[in-house]
Amino acid sequence: MNSWAKRVGNLLLFAILAAGLTGGAFLSGFGVAWGLHPPAPRVAPPATPPPDLEQAFGIFWEAWRLVQQEYYGEIPSPQTVAYGAIRGALQTLGDPYTSFIEPKIARILQEDASGQFEGIGALVRMNRDNKLEIVRTFEGSPAQRAGLRAGDLVLKVNGQSIVGYSIYEAIALIRGPAGTSVTLTIERPGEREPFEVTVTRARITIPVVEARMLPQGVAYIQLFDFSAQATRQLQEQLKALLAQNPRGLILDLRDNPGGFLDQAIQVADLFLDEGVVAYERTRDGEERVFRSKSGDPGEKIPMVVLVNAGSASASEIVAGTLQDRGRARLVGERTFGKGSVQLSHPLSDGSELRVTIARWFTPKNRAIHGQGLNPDIEVRVDPAQPAGGRDPQLEKAIEVLFQER
User: Fold this and answer.
1) What is the DSSP string of 182-224?
2) Whole-angstrom distance, CA of residue 157 vs CA of residue 165
3) Of 266, 299, 330, 335, whose CA is between 20 and 30 Å from 20?
4) Cα dihedral angle (47, 48, 50, 54), rounded to 10 degrees?
5) Average pLDDT over residues 105-127
6) Higher pLDDT, 207 or 193
7) 116-205 topology per CATH
């Protein structure tokens, strides 16, 4: 076995078997706006692989030597081979949330956590067909100006197919320095053929909260993600709206892909008195209970929560808690169903390994993972059918709010 191949094997085994790494628990959705607790600054030394697994990987070297000797083409770099081997090994777990993130993708997530990035200004997700779907475009963003809209599917980036790519790999191709352009091949519901859209990238500030008073005297707050500033910004907007003596409140969590666990607990706490917010349970049966406390400004106002299939993870914690504790009714569509917790491990080359370590449950011990939350009142919206400027789900939420007064 040559020296570089041996180094690849060691990196593979160490990355898979590394123990004792310190990271932060996070809840991620499927979009780009989710975050994680800051990982520890140190990286623990890799563990020594157990003899049985080291022996089992002998077949890997047997196969790879044949590739080196016989392959008609260019052999990829050791790093490329190692990263591919790690991803392949993780796929055997059958858990899409236990994942390996290359350094350039890890930097993207750090940008998201900072609240700014350079790109086109759109929130995206991987849909159930494993295609990159635009969930929404930010107001005034290059994506919006170029005519992109919710429901568009991105098939290619600069002529390169991204079907089958992870969301991180796809985002890395779409993002780039402000002032440069990127050409996207779009599949749009209702259109017979895909078409190309060229977008000039810009410096984007990620919006977190949008708040306003509706004509009916109802306070409306839309929370776009649960990033580090979510609770602070939401609390500021809530205070300003409550000063206007609204008749009720609508919290819009549609297309909110999730974010920090602590932000989910704190946001829920703004609307709840003392009690359970969520349970987190590990595979060993250990349980952690998250609780709310009394004394926050939004505990008394009548409220309704809007949800849809794009509401995931931290959004489901908040919505599920408010539903279970009878604080608010849910209006809209069934949520995504992301109820697992990951631990993020920084690796020595700037990459990250994220491992599913627990599941969370609502106050009534409902499991959300793979199931989602059913709304109290279902209002379906077909993105392929223009609503003529109307928002049927919001209209229904207002109706429900007045019925409960």
Assistant:
1) EEEEEE-TT-SS-EEEEEE-EEEEPP-EEEEE-TTSEEEEEE-
2) 11
3) 266
4) 120
5) 81
6) 193
7) Pdz3 Domain (2.30.42)
What pLDDT sits at residue 115? Answer: 66
Output the pTM of the full model: 0.73
Separation between Cα atoms, residue 301 and residue 243, nearest integer Å = 12
Residues whose CB is less than 8 angstroms from the CB of residue 69 and which lie 6 or more positions away in sequence, other chains included: none
The amino acid that residue 129 corresponds to is D
Report yes or no: 199 and 139 within 8 Å, Cβ to Cβ.
Answer: no
| For the chain, domain boundaries | 3-23+42-99, 116-205, 209-403
- Among 344, 349, 280, smallest CA distance to 38 is for 344
Q: Domain 209-403 class?
A: alpha beta
Q: Residue 326 has which token pair?
A: 């009878």
278 strand-pairing partners = 290
C-alpha dihedral (307, 310, 315, 318), degrees to nearest 10: 20
Using the structure block, give the residue that is written with the tokens 């609240």.
115
> Exposure string (b/e) for 47-75, b if CB count within 10 Å is 16 or more?
eebeeeeeeebeebeeebeeeeeeeeeee
Question: Among residues 17, 166, 97, which one has the least CA distance to residue 357?
Answer: 97
Residue 389 CA to residue 402 CA, distance in Å, equals: 22
Amino acid making up residue 255 = D
Q: Is the pLDDT of residue 301 over 90?
A: yes
**Two structure tokens written together for 301:** 């106002």
Record the tokens describing residue 305, joined without a space: 């929560």
DSSP assignment letter at 74: P
The helix (H) or strand (E) run that includes residue 107 is: helix 103-114
pLDDT band at 44 (very low <50, low <70, confident <90, very high): low
Residues β-bridged to residue 93: none
Q: CA-to-CA distance for 86 and 235, rounded, in angstroms? A: 42
Q: What is the pLDDT of residue 345?
A: 86
Q: Classify residue 96 by its DSSP letter.
A: T
Q: 334: number of CA atoms within 13 Å, CB side?
A: 9
**CA 70, CA 308: separation in Å to the nearest integer?**
52
Q: Which residues form the catalytic set?
A: 313, 324, 338
The number of helices, as runs of H, and strands, as runs of E, in the chain is: 11, 20
Phi–psi pair at 222, nearest 5 degrees: -110, 125
3-state helix, strand, coil in the chain (%, to 5): 30, 25, 45
